[in-house]
């Protein structure tokens, strides 16, 4: 105890007091801005000075001399007074710091109460606890009880949602101690860097009974360990107090900081100062390389302009807020101290004046103010809009070109495709900026960002607690189900939404993985997570549900249903789409109807089916229509719709009529689950079902059926036929999860189709409170009249429309139908 106390007193605290002594001495120096005032002592007040006009005029000369003399004199007088006041306080700080440091060194015994009540480091707690366990003869109950009742243990229990009292009671009943020697051997290997989390994970690996206790309570020991590491990382991240940090003292917003910098009256009307605005996420983790790169450019005296290039959601604005925070607290290079990061509202600026010429004049005036101020860094969001022409764009490139060569320092923000389209081509402007490319963080960095930067802020904001499994689940589901935004944006968006959902709807303060799943299910209108009763029944009986609308075609229905079940239970690859199928068969046999039925059953509505008539996509123009064009500046129809409705069934109708070059677009989509547009952006198709329909080989199919070829052999021969005829390549066919042959419908099948169609008509007539009398005779006549081997069930639909729907419409118009009446149809 004595040795520990002396180590703490002289080796831990005393050196810090010498740092405090120095900082107390220097505090008045920077609080009164003495270095800055000495450096700018003879500079004009607020940089206010006037220059001589062309030509010689004695009045003008006297006016200029008088104004500039007053400006400099005012600056000298006020700054000298401030410097003197600051110097008066320097001895006070010196004496106070000296007294504290010397007293602490000479009076050790008086500090013993502080030693007893100090906040121990995690390492100190771990060593102390280990000594206690050793004294108790290896009693692991002592270790676990202390761990669970420490602040770290409470943090873990709160975020994993287990009953601390219940677990503590079960721990007390542990009797096994024969494995202590194994525990001791493992601990000795890392005793110099030991933490409480190390003690816990070692105890669970050497004492299975401890692991059993937690697992019986549905708690994974790895979750406890990872949550403990999270707690320890949060503790390490805490900032030192101002008086113990010279960099923070040096960055203090001291007295008279703004005296040395010019007025920015016009600019302030359109500006938001990030260095004064508290950032919601001030400590961005894992972006040190990018932040350092920005700082290196900004400290230069020329060409000190940065262009941040990244997709929305990748963290462009959070990065700037972190940079502003670093400057404000003194973590940035000293030459950036007292710099103002100004976000310019370019939309408001452009709306201020009616003509482009006047807008350019206003922009020039603002930039001149910023240059004269001497401490301004201007941020322009979506800069591509202000260096190009077109709808919604304003070309101010000549103004920016002029001032980008000044001392201001610009930080511009744009997206990769917009950079290539609008900025890269302007070589004069592009060469004045240093590009900083932002890409989504790695999984490891992302989790670190969320744990240390994002989640603590969300917890304070919504008064909830995030369990670590919920954070992992949010990252996993964001990766799988959110494709329009990159990380970390989509993870932050999801966590924010789940926090609101948990606090407002679930009335809970602990966010669990189940809440993440429930929130996403409600938001996306698709089932996520564990199967529930209704959905389970739907998947089990999917074949029966599809056959309510589709007659015959058992092989197709069986393949579809099997694929859907595997996908929902995450048995198939998560990279590929839910399913991709090629339906081969003649017209009117149920290919499109099967797709519609599946969209309604799985996604809840036929409206969630995206239909593309592939005969309209030919040659290079067809490719442009599907994936867009950089040259024309238009988005792709296929890629845009997949992004807008990622949870949908995509029907590629008459697939064989598309240009062969277009087939190549679908190879990656069917295999990897994404398609890249002309701008290089990926459209995610992992949550979609793709069904391509084709009449290819219809006549060949009829011939083989007439020859009595069995179903399995029929499918094999038809696939060989479309390959031999070079309709579809083997490479393309192999990308489909299933190539399904739809066989022609017999007259008996058409009767069943007629029943379904008449039932659908009755459903439409419910609003009129009438029905059509469906008789056996009516169905036979429909099947007989509508039997057409070439058009299949489509002929039946046409007959119903012409012979039945027309009769019903006439009777309704004549007013001869009463509510509740059963209309008898004669054809």
Automatic annotation (TrEMBL):
Gene Ontology process terms (BP): cellular response to heat
A GO molecular-function descriptor: ATP hydrolysis activity
Swiss-Prot/TrEMBL keywords: ATP-binding, Chaperone, Coiled coil, Membrane, Nucleotide-binding, Repeat, Transmembrane, Transmembrane helix
Coiled coil: 751-778
InterPro entries for this protein: AAA+_ATPase, ATPase_AAA_core, Clp_ATPase_C, ClpA/B, ClpA/ClpB_AAA_lid, ClpA_ClpB, P-loop_NTPase
Domain AAA+ ATPase per the UniProt entry, residue ranges: 302-452, 577-720
Annotated protein name in UniProt: Sigma-54 factor interaction domain-containing protein
Organism for this UniProt entry: Candidatus Gottesmanbacteria bacterium RIFCSPLOWO2_01_FULL_39_12b
UniProt lineage: Bacteria, Candidatus Gottesmaniibacteriota
């Amino acid at each position: 105890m004595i040795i520990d106390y002396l180590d703490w007193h002289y080796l831990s605290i005393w050196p810090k007091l010498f740092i405090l002594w120095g900082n107390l001495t220097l505090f008045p120096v920077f609080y009164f801005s003495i270095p800055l005032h000495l450096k700018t002592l003879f500079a004009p007040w607020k940089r206010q000075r006037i220059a001589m006009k062309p030509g010689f005029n004695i009045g003008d000369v006297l006016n200029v001399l008088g104004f500039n003399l007053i400006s400099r004199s005012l600056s000298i007088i006020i700054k000298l007074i401030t410097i003197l006041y600051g110097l008066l306080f320097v001895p006070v700080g010196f004496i106070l710091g000296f007294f504290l440091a010397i007293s602490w060194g000479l009076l050790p015994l008086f500090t013993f109460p502080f030693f007893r009540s100090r906040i121990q480091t995690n390492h100190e707690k771990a060593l102390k606890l280990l000594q206690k366990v050793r004294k108790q003869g290896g009693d692991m109950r002592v270790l676990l009880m202390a761990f669970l009742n420490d602040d770290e243990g409470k943090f873990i229990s709160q975020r994993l949602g287990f009953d601390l009292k219940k677990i503590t009671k079960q721990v007390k009943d542990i009797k096994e101690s024969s494995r202590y020697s194994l525990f001791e051997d493992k601990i000795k290997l890392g005793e110099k860097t030991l933490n409480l989390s190390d003690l816990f994970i070692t105890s669970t690996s050497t004492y299975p009974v401890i692991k059993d206790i937690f697992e019986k309570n549905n708690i994974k020991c790895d979750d406890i360990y990872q949550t403990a590491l999270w707690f320890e990382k949060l503790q390490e991240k805490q900032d030192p107090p101002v008086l113990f940090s010279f960099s923070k003292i040096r960055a203090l917003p001291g007295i008279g900081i703004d005296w040395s910098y010019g007025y920015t009256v016009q600019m302030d009307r359109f500006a938001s100062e990030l260095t004064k605005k508290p950032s919601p996420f001030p400590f961005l983790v894992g972006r040190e390389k990018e932040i350092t790169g920005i700082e290196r450019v900004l400290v230069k005296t020329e060409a000190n302009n940065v262009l941040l290039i990244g997709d929305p959601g990748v963290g462009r604005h959070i990065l700037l807020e972190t940079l502003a925070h670093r400057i404000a607290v003194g973590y940035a290079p000293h030459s950036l101290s007292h710099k103002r990061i100004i976000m310019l509202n370019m939309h408001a600026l452009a709306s201020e004046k009616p003509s482009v010429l006047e807008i350019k004049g206003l922009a020039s005036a603002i930039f001149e103010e910023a240059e004269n101020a001497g401490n301004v860094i201007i941020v322009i969001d979506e800069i591509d809009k202000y260096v190009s022409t077109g709808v919604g764009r304003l070309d101010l490139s000549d103004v920016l070109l002029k001032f980008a060569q000044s001392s201001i320092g610009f930080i511009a923000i744009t997206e990769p495709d917009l950079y290539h389209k609008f900025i890269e081509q302007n070589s004069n402007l592009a060469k004045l900026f240093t590009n900083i490319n932002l890409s989504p963080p790695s999984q490891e960095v992302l989790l670190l960002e969320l744990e240390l930067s994002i989640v603590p802020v969300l917890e304070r904001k919504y008064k909830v607690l995030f369990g670590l499994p919920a954070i992992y689940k949010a990252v996993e589901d964001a990766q799988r189900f959110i494709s329009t935004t990159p990380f970390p944006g989509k993870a932050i968006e999801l966590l924010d939404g789940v926090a609101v959902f948990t606090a407002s709807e679930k009335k809970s303060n602990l966010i669990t993985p189940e809440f993440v799943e429930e929130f996403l299910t409600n938001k996306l209108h698709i089932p996520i997570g564990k199967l529930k009763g209704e959905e389970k029944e739907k998947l089990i009986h999917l074949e029966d549900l599809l056959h309510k609308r589709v007659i015959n075609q058992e092989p197709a229905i069986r393949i579809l249903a099997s694929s859907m079940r595997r996908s929902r239970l995450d048995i198939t690859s998560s990279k590929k789409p839910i399913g991709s199928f090629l339906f081969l068969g003649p017209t009117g046999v149920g290919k499109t109807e099967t797709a519609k039925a599946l969209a309604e059953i799985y996604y809840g509505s036929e409206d969630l089916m995206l239909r593309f008539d592939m005969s309209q996509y030919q040659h290079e123009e067809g490719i442009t229509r599907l994936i867009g064009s950089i040259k024309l500046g238009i988005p792709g129809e296929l890629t845009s719709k997949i992004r807008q409705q990622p949870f949908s069934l995509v029907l590629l109708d008459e697939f064989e009529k598309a240009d062969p070059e277009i087939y190549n677009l679908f190879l990656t989509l069917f295999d990897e689950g994404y398609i890249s547009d002309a701008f290089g952006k990926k459209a995610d198709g992992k949550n979609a079902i793709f069904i391509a329909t084709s009449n290819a080989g219809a006549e060949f199919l009829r011939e083989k059926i007439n020859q009595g070829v069995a179903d399995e052999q029929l499918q094999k021969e038809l696939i060989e036929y479309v390959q031999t005829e070079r309709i579809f390549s083997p490479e393309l066919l192999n990308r489909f999860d299933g190539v399904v042959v739809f066989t022609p419908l017999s007259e008996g099948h058409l009767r069943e189709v007629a029943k379904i169609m008449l039932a659908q008509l009755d459903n439409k007539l419910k609003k009129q409170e009438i029905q059509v009398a469906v008789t056996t005779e009516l169905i036979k006549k429909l099947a007989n009249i509508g039997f057409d081997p070439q058009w299949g069930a489509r002929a039946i639909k046409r007959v119903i429309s012409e012979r039945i729907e027309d009769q019903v419409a006439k009777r309704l118009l004549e007013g001869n139908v009463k509510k509740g009446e059963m209309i008898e149809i004669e054809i």
